[in-house]
Backbone:
């Protein structure tokens, strides 16, 4: 390229650069002219100057009536600006009610519970009942205000139980369905806890009146020594009558299992009552390594009540490790017990209902009774598939039926127990 051409190129490039720089300077000056002036800070009590920005609002401020002196963060101190969080809203659920409904045979049992699942007492509730969609009675009332309604002699069919509206209570709009059958259902009642009482709530002197039939039948040849012959396992059975027990000493004394009374049905009122020493006994025994089973003194007068008793035992059993069977203790209550006058057929049906309910729940069931009671008050052919715990205080058992546990004395002595205690041998090592 010759020198003349180079000069021409340089001149062109210089012109282009000058034009670009000029354009940049022009644009920059225009932006400075349009830039708003910074707001002036006002001191407390100071008035706005006559030539303040408020008098020179931009078209945007004028259009939307904006005040450039307004605090842009004022909304933060406005308590009503924000919606309250859900967890800040207080919702009273204490008046929200629901129903627990169960059936055993031709009956309907209804419990009214609050939002915590506890029974609601002190208020007379009314219920409506529908069968196959049709209302069968105007209303049923909870007259004794215990939050429970029990209906017996019901026809089989599909029922809907509804709680009637009541004052400030919030009741469910939909009813609870229940299927009533003519045949007994040997299934655990999940709402049985509402029926179980402590001894503080009843008169134990008139309710806990079991009479040991084996002592009445004793022939005077019993021994209070431990039986070690044969393939047997040594154990005891205990209740509140044995008072405080040191289970570590009991275990060290050679006791391998214990059948613990968990409760009884009242001889007079029929209340279901927890043995006051049950929790102490079962925790102490299991912690010490003693295997346990449970028993319940029955005063059931029909199979429906037997299912209630079995459900009570299962409620206690599921909270602990159980190795030995769950027994129904069937014996007299001094002649005045509500179940003392049952005939053999009914008493056998009671024991069967108890055992079937226990077995259907996955546990081993059994019947405890004296020799004379087994022979005279029960049809043992109908109960042969369950464990039999024989109570006979004699040097040798003379009961000719089958049994897998023998209570042979009530005069045993064990280190760790201040009272006399029943001795047992089990021919099954559960």
Residues:
């Amino acid at each position: 390229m010759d020198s003349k051409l180079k000069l021409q190129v340089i001149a062109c490039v210089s012109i282009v650069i000058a034009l670009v720089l000029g354009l940049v300077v022009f644009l920059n000056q225009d932006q400075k002219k349009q830039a708003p002036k910074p707001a002036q800070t006002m001191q407390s009590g100071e008035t706005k100057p006559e030539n303040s920005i408020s008098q020179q609002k931009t078209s945007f401020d004028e259009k939307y009536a904006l005040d450039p002196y307004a605090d842009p963060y004022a909304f933060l101190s406005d308590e009503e600006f924000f919606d309250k969080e859900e967890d800040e809203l207080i919702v009273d659920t204490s008046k929200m009610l629901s129903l627990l409904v169960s059936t055993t045979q031709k009956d309907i049992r209804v419990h009214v519970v609050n939002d915590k699942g506890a029974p609601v007492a002190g208020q007379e509730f009314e219920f409506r009942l529908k069968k196959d969609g049709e209302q069968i009675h105007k209303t049923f009332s909870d007259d004794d205000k215990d939050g429970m309604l029990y209906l017996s002699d019901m026809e089989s069919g599909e029922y809907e139980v509804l709680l009637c509206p009541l004052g400030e209570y919030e009741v469910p709009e939909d009813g609870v369905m229940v299927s009533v059958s003519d045949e007994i259902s040997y299934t655990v009642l999940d709402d049985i806890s509402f029926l179980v009482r402590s001894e503080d709530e009843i008169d134990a002197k008139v309710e806990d009146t079991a009479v040991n039939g084996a002592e009445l039948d004793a022939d005077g040849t019993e021994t209070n020594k431990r039986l070690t012959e044969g393939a047997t396992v040594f154990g005891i059975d205990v209740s509140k009558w044995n008072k405080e027990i040191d289970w570590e000493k009991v275990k060290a004394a050679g006791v391998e299992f214990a059948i613990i009374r968990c409760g009884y049905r009242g001889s007079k009122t029929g209340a279901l009552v927890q043995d006051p020493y049950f929790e102490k006994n079962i925790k102490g025994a299991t912690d010490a390594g003693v295997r346990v089973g449970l028993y319940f003194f029955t005063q059931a007068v029909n199979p429906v009540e037997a299912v209630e008793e079995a459900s009570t035992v299962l409620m206690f059993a599921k909270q602990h490790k159980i190795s030995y069977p769950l027994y129904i203790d069937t014996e007299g209550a001094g002649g005045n017990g509500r179940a003392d006058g049952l005939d053999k057929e009914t008493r056998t049906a009671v024991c069967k209902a108890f055992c079937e309910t226990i077995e259907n729940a996955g546990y081993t069931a059994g019947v405890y009774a004296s020799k004379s009671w087994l022979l005279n008050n029960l049809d043992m052919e109908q109960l042969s598939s369950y464990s039999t715990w024989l109570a006979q205080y004699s040097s040798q058992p003379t009961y000719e039926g089958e049994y897998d546990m023998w209570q042979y004395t009530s005069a045993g002595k064990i280190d760790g127990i201040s009272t006399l205690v029943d001795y047992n041998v089990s021919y099954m090592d559960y």
Summary: The chain has two domains: 98-180, 192-426. The mean pLDDT is 87. The chain is about 25% helix and 25% strand.
